[in-house]
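Following up on my earlier message about guanosine-5'-monophosphate. Here are the inputs again, as you asked, copied directly from the submission form:
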Amino acid sequence: MQEKKTKGRLFIVSAPSGTGKTTLCKKIISALPNLNFSVSYTTRPPRPGEVDNRDYTFVTRTRFSSMLDKGEFIEWAEIHDELYGTSKKRLAELMRSGIDVILDIDTQGTMKLKKKNKEGIYIFILPPSMEVLKKRLEKRMTNAKEDIEKRLKTAVLEIKRYSNYDYVIINDTLNNALKELEAIIISHRCSTKMINSFWIKESFLNKRR
Ligand code: ADP
Ligand code: 5GP
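Thanks, got it. Here's what our run produced:
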C-alpha cells in the first residue's frame, strides 16, 4: 500500500535573536504530530537548562572545523563569534522517515540553502518592535549588556532580509503567533504537491467498481 503523502517537508524558520523563535518552535512541535527539529551543531556553550543533543550538539571548534572540512554540513554560519551548522546526515534521516522538519537557522544559513535550491517553506518571525526585542533579550538574561547591543545590531541586518522568506509572522502575543505558524504548516501539509500520485492511482483510479 502506498503512503498518502510524499516525504517530509522542510520548514525553515529565522528570526532575530530574542524574538521568541525557540519558544514558538518548541510549542509547535508539541502541538502538531509528525514534526521535529533537526538538532544543530554549535561551538557555543550550553545555556542553563539546555541539554546536549536535544537543544544542540555542543562541540569544540576543532570538531566543528573537521566536520566542515568533510562537508558534513548542508549549511553553516558564524554568529556572534560562534559556529552553527545543520548536519546533512541528520536532516536526510529525518526527511526520509517522512517527518516534517523545522530548521531553526539564521538568515546567512537560509541564503546558503536557497542558493542550493533547497525546497522548503521559508518563515521569518519578527518581534512587534525593536523596543520589545530589547526587553525580551533582557528578560531572557542569558546575554551580557554588550552582547545584547550586538544582537540588536545583528537584528537590523537580519530584518533587511525578510523578503527572501515566503511568510512573515509577528510574535506579539504568543498564542496568535503560534496559531499563524500552525496555519502555515497545516496548509502546506494539504498542498497538492504533498500527495503521492501513486497512492491516488492505487486507491481511487485503478480500482474496479
Ligand atoms: P529566540 O529563540 O528567538 O532567541 P526565545 O524563544 O529564547 O527567543 O525568547 C526570548 C524571550 O522572550 C524568552 O524569555 C521568552 O520567554 C520570551 N518570549 C517569547 N515569545 C514571547 C511573546 N510572544 N511574548 C512575550 N515574551 C515572549
Ligand atoms: P542561539 O545561540 O540564540 O541559540 O542561536 C543564535 C542563532 O543561531 C539563531 O539565529 C539561530 O537560529 C541560529 N542557528 C541555530 N542553529 C543554526 C544552524 O544550524 N545554522 C545556522 N545557520 N544558524 C543556526
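One observation from looking it over: The chain is about 45% helix and 20% strand. Hope that helps, and feel free to reply on this thread.
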